[in-house]
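In response to reviewer comment 3 from the previous cycle, which asked for concrete evidence that the modeling workflow produces usable outputs, we include below a single protein chain processed end to end. The sequence was submitted unchanged, and the resulting structure tokens are shown without manual editing.
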Amino acid sequence: MPITGACAEAARAYDAYVREFLSYGPDLRAIFDVAGANPQAPLLNAHAASLHMAFEGAEGWTTAAPYLENMRAARAAGTERERLFCDAVEAQANHDFARAMRALDELTVRWPADLCALKWGQYHAFNLGHAPALLRFGERARIVHEGTPYAHGMTAFALEQNHRLGEAEEEGLKASEIALDDAWAHHAVAHVMETQGRAREGARWLDHCAHTWDAKGVFIRDHNYWHAALFRLSLGREDDALAIYDEKLWGAWPEFPQEQIGAVSMLWRLELRGADVGPRWAPVVEQVRARAEDHIFPFHDLHYLYALARAGEPGEAERFIASLKRKTEIALNPVWAETCVPAAEALAAFARGKHEQAAQALGPLLNDLHRIGGSHAQRHVFVETYEACLAEDNQQTRDAL
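The workflow returned the following structure tokens.
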């Protein structure tokens, strides 16, 4: 798979980036210098741009801009495979994530050896809530890359999201045998155990794997510790979950949207179980305010909205919902209008203590919430919120009697 416009040194740097990307390593940023030094290389600049946008905040699009310019100028000189990847990145730049996924689908059918493109395809499929596509990319990885480090972890998570739990666990364990540090495979096996209610085993599994995460990037480190805290919640160990929150889930990179939504999600769940989280909402809300106009992914926005409704200033949640409604006027994906806005209104009602109103609005949406993106485990907080509304309504009825 040639890399147009890249010298041997740049090609080696690209290979190093691919290894970091697949393994969730901490040195991904090296691709930016390599791409900047090789403006005539469309593939290098496409990956640099895509990685900036994968920050998942508006500033990612700003920092991607010079790499996008290089990519566009050099695209015609690239191979057909490279041009397809450029097309995916162009679609990503235009927030047309479905078109980005389709371009990567075509690319990886024709060049399934491009494991990095398969991983990017899974990235978009996940954010679109498209479990079948997630598995398509994963199956290609498994077929072409048997025994390749990090490929089996990709397949394991895709299998889990498609409810093939036994296969997912087997594939995840195989991945961990091939590459002990496959944090994505650790994560996939944790998902299986969470889904099957194996909280004690899941906590032990992640504790067993955690020593490898110190050498990983912030996202996977935060997210795997989020799962570790989730298992503690399932075991009724709220204090342990709070300790994980304080030590591992907040503070490494507060500006990072993934750290923000992980923190919101954990505080939300803790309070649903009656835990006192003290002043922990305040720094999270301070960061979330900077996301009020981003509107990149519905899943993120519902977490931002809940933080503002739960602990923001008066009127902030209402302004956020108004901004969401403006987003529906330009959004390419109808999920913003059909699911995100009504779910946001339901969550705002819940945060204000209007449980009956929240339940009536949220209940009909539960079967469609996969469309907002996120995993089964991440979206379960909406089910828990709905159940909390019903429990509160039932308690009020009993009190009235």
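DSSP finds 21 helices and no strands in the chain. We consider this sufficient to address the reviewer's concern, and the full set will be provided in the supplementary archive.
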